[in-house]
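User: Hi! I have a protein structure encoded as tokens and I'd like to know what sequence might fold into it. I'm fairly new to this, so please keep things simple.
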């Protein structure tokens, strides 16, 4: 794979995003993550998965400069694949730990929220669903997953403000579960994955389904309409002007 590095050690599979400096998400990245997850789902030797990034970013979110050249049809197709990925992650039958090594923004935050456990390094890294700041909406599924993870009041504050939270603030909002040092991230993520991975898988899978399937059932009927609404907002004149000013460095 070009943008996702995979390795398995002692039954723990690690997927590392490695696309440029900020791990921006495009169609190729989404396909590679999905393919890797499918292979680990079918591998009886893999008991749990860790999703992480390299350098200072877990993920910037969507590769906005690339998508400025997309037609509405092509962009809609990407969004369908992206929302399918976070739904797959949310219902994944094995434990998934998000090891947030740095900035976790917008679409990157949506992927992290779909995981079972989120650990984030202390320091300068921020986590945010900042779409409202540049005039974008979110998706029905991402909203329901956020509500599931942080509760109604926190979800409202997070989405209405578009605020960037540091690790300690994010823990206070239930966006993440633990704050760790950069040096501890790998060790603590492996331990979290091992703790869940040692559970009897059929029992874990059943309990996870009971917890999360009702959430997915609520948003599935609305997901496509929310994607269409997202696209209309994205291509509106004010939002488009803001998007053109966003640079990925």
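Assistant: Happy to help. Inverse folding works backwards from shape to sequence: for each of the 249 positions I chose a residue that suits the local structure. Here it is:
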């Amino acid at each position: 794979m070009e943008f996702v590095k995979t390795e398995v050690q002692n039954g723990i599979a690690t997927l590392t995003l490695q696309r440029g400096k900020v791990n921006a998400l495009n169609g190729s990245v989404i396909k590679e993550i999905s393919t890797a997850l499918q292979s680990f789902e079918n591998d009886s030797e893999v008991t749990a998965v860790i999703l992480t990034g390299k350098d200072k970013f877990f993920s910037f979110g969507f590769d906005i400069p690339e998508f400025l050249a997309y037609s509405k049809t092509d962009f809609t197709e990407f969004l369908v694949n992206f929302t399918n990925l976070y739904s797959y992650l949310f219902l994944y039958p094995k434990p998934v730990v998000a090891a947030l090594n740095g900035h976790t923004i917008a679409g990157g935050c949506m992927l992290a929220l779909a995981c079972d456990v989120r650990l984030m390094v202390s320091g300068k890294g921020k986590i945010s669903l900042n779409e409202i700041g540049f005039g974008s909406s979110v998706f029905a599924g991402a909203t329901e997953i956020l509500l599931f993870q942080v509760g109604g009041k926190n979800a409202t504050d997070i989405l209405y403000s578009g605020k960037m939270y540091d690790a300690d603030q994010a823990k206070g909002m239930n966006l993440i579960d633990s704050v760790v040092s950069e040096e501890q991230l790998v060790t603590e993520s492996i331990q979290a994955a091992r703790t869940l991975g040692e559970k009897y898988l059929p029992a874990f899978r059943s309990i996870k389904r009971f917890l999360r399937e009702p959430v997915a059932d609520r948003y599935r009927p609305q997901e496509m309409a929310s994607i269409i609404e997202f696209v209309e907002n994205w291509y509106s004149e004010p939002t488009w002007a803001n998007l053109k000013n966003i640079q990925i460095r």
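A useful reference point when you look it over: The chain has one domain: 4-197. Feel free to ask if any position seems puzzling.
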